[in-house]
Design brief:
Elements: E1 4-10, H1 16-25, E2 30-35, H2 42-54, E3 59-63, H3 68-73, E4 79-84, H4 86-94, H5 102-115, E5 119-125, H6 136-155, E6 158-163, E7 166-171
Parallel strand pairs: 1-5, 1-6, 2-3, 2-4, 4-5
Antiparallel strand pairs: 6-7
Length: 177
């Protein structure tokens, strides 16, 4: 049974992660931060370090670039999972040699979300508001991210778009998509 599923989207440096941290801390539950990023270069390592500094010692960190479904499936009602970020997770899967497993993993993830008793807050980048990319992998990334976001929004209790540090509620528990 879904307790509380929230999708927080926005552009780069728009304030979505800060907003999601605040929402999770307000839950009163055990806080678990699930990081999907991998430090492939110095710039990404700096971003990861900045995000770590934003969290206090009350957070448990799980670094998982691929298998989010298992973490969600094993969570309990006393936990608030903050996944940051879904677009990196999609990218991680599409760049694997076995990228053909992406649809299976996506469905396992969505099933886990539908059945978890935990609160789950997911941060993602809105990537579909720009032009259609020229490269095949880039187009696949935008397509897969958009389809994932639509599927999550359909089952989420809350969908929030954060722009310029200002959260805009797109869907609340009382609304239908």
């Amino acid at each position: 049974m879904v307790s509380n599923i929230e999708l927080v989207a926005g552009g780069a440096r728009g304030g979505k992660s800060r907003y999601a941290l605040q929402r999770a801390e307000q839950s009163g539950k055990n806080l678990i931060f699930i990081a999907t990023a991998e430090a492939g270069d110095g710039s990404m390592a700096d971003r990861i370090a900045r995000h770590k500094e934003e969290r206090d010692e009350g957070w448990t960190l799980i670094e998982e670039p691929h298998d989010l479904a298992t973490i969600i499936a094993n969570a309990d009602t006393n936990e608030c999972l903050l996944i940051d970020c879904l677009t990196l997770w999609v990218s991680n899967w599409l760049c694997l040699e076995d990228a053909a497993q992406w649809p299976v993993q996506k469905n396992k993830f969505l099933d886990a979300l539908k059945n978890t008793p935990a609160t789950v807050i997911m941060v993602t980048n809105e990537v579909g508001m720009g032009i259609i990319p020229m490269g095949e992998l880039s187009r696949q990334f935008v397509d897969e991210s958009g389809w994932l976001h639509q599927a999550i929004a359909a089952i989420a209790d809350e969908v929030v778009l954060v722009m310029f540090g200002i959260p805009q509620k797109m869907k609340t528990a009382s609304m239908e998509v």
